[in-house]
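Q: Sequence in, structure out?
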Amino acid sequence: MASLFSVFMQVYSNKRAVFESLKSLRTFYRDVAVRVVSDDGENFSEICNAFNATFVHSPTRIVAGSSSAGFVSGGLQEYLIRLYDHCIATNAEWVIIFESDVRLIRHFRSFPETEAAGPRMNLFSIELNQWLVRQFGSRPYGYGMSGGSVFRRESFIKAYRSGTSIERYAIYDSRLPKYGDMALTLLFYLNGYDFSVWSEVSELFHEDSPIIRDAAMDHAYKYWYDKPFDIAMLEIAEDGSRTMHGLHLV
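A: Exactly. Output:
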């Protein structure tokens, strides 16, 4: 029987923030599949073992410095491959994108009606929006596949296998090859799917424009950034291995 959702998480550093993010997830969902990919960054294997998550250390760095700097050349394709690898390794209906600044507050009460959804709808360039209107009709277009976003796994697999090149649309919006949240949303649009705002994710602590709603998940929560992490936080279970069963999930 397929699970309702699985989790994909790309990380680099900030072990304490990653620990707290996964801890919040496992507080409410002990069994969903989780895949954590280190972007040629730190080794998170101990944390992943504790939370029963699959850990992959990629030797290829795709993010240029801080996440706000975007992907290096060719980074977008590697990012989509990582998502695809996760999707074919699980049978869950939905995939939720976690980041180190995502926390789960309660169980989910609903999932979106569209194939992809996120905390907000940011604007594409005027040129790209006009092109989308010409191609697919007049309706709201925007992007928001950041941390805390969600998409239908099978829809992404079909879109990825279509061979759609996102880079060719950079003539309408030059940001596309650099930012995964933009490119991933456009990939769904180009393959006949839709994007919407998901009511189950907030951004209570967003530094520019907070989104306050009664939601299961919160994005842009950076309290644990640069806080110390000690391996002793992973309480050793009776069998001598580090497992989530030995964690203080409070």
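Helices lie at 15-28, 45-50, 75-89, 126-136, 153-161, 180-190.
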